[in-house]
Design a protein that fits this description.
Oligomer: single chain
Mean pLDDT: 91
Strand content: 25-35%
Distance between the termini: 25 Å
Number of strands: 15
Length: about 240
């Protein structure tokens, strides 16, 4: 993998959390490890951080591991779920909830390594698979690939998605798309525009005015957004060794 996976470890017994976190930290494929002592803390971690997988104990007060799996199964792109438990009897229900793996305590390092391998494979598959956006047009529902969207234009509480050949109006504010698509390379250049960084052909930086060209269409860059755009451009600049 080109990058490490970030995980959440959730168990209502603190020693179990620390032991599993330690074992995970020994694997070079694991990056950030977020610890949670309850189901609520695990869900909070999902809200605050980018997470690739959860290692969940099944029996936790209030929100059990199975409850958490039910919640995240409704996510557009749910993180992988690995149950880590001493209970052999819940495996069927766990896999019915699309669990990636079911590891019995006490956890053996080689067994944990297998779970991490499965997670890494799933993450790589998700990265390779283009995100699909559902849009309604004239009473017909269409599926378009997100990587075909060159820029997005704000229109009140709606947003217009512009591809090479067409545009589509969706009832999602531009602010929401900015947050949801930032990890896919979309950046805000103006209060009215969100653009795919890789689709920008030219950047014009004139005195007191800046703009970008995407397929011959010129879009303004606000003074507020310009510093971040410059930062992204600098990050992509080729430098001598």
């Amino acid at each position: 993998m080109s990058s490490m996976i970030n995980v959440v470890v959730a168990d209502d017994e603190l020693p179990a959390v620390e032991e599993l976190a330690y074992l995970l930290s020994l694997d070079a494929r694991v990056g950030t490890i977020h610890r949670a002592n309850s189901g609520a803390e695990a869900l909070k971690a999902l809200e605050e951080f980018e997470v690739d997988a959860l290692f969940l104990d099944i029996h936790m007060p209030a929100l059990s591991g199975l409850d958490i799996a039910r919640v995240i199964s409704r996510f557009t792109r749910p993180p992988a779920v690995v149950f880590v438990t001493a209970d052999e009897d819940q495996a069927l229900e766990a896999f019915e909830l699309a669990a990636l793996d079911y590891v019995l305590k006490p956890v053996r390092p080689e067994r944990l390594a297998e779970s991490i391998r499965r997670i890494c494979e799933q993450v790589e598959e998700e990265i390779a698979k283009p995100e699909v956006v559902t849009v309604d047009q004239g009473g017909v529902t269409k599926m378009i690939r997100r990587d075909e969207i060159r820029y997005v234009q704000a229109q009140g509480d709606y947003a217009r998605l512009h591809t090479k050949d067409a545009s589509y109006l969706i009832r999602v504010p531009l602010n929401d798309l900015e947050q949801q698509w930032s990890s896919a390379g979309y950046i805000r250049i103006h209060r009215s525009y969100l653009v795919a960084m890789e689709k920008i052909d030219t950047v014009k930086l004139a005195t007191g005015k800046a703009s970008v060209l995407i397929s011959g269409i010129e879009l303004p860059v606000s003074r507020r957004a310009l510093p971040y755009l410059r930062e992204r451009l600098a990050a992509n600049r080729v430098r001598p060794l």
